[in-house]
Design a protein that fits this description.
- The chain is an alpha+beta fold and 77 residues long.
- Helices cover 44% and strands 13% of the residues.
- It is built from three helices and three strands, in the order βααββα.
Length: 77
């Protein structure tokens, strides 16, 4: 996998995301992404699924997660 490519737009993201894709897109560490994978979705975690020991996220689920965070942020303002 080419780790030099930067994922900074929705169009640049593949349909199935890894922690690296999400970290680059959000500008956070992969460690933080893995923490969000381990957090229950009801508590703000990123919805994901496992392929063996690897975690993956569907792009559509990631987009919904972002939208939910934005709505929650607007309510708390």
């Amino acid at each position: 996998m080419d780790n030099t490519r930067k994922y900074t737009t929705w169009e640049s993201l593949p349909d199935t995301l890894t922690a690296l894709h999400i970290a680059q897109f959000l500008g956070i560490s992969r460690r933080r992404v893995y923490e969000l994978f381990l957090t229950h979705v009801e508590h703000g975690g990123i919805p994901n699924f496992a392929i063996g020991t690897s975690k993956r996220v569907e792009k559509s689920d990631f987009k919904k997660w972002i939208i939910q965070l934005k709505k929650k942020s607007e309510v708390n303002q």
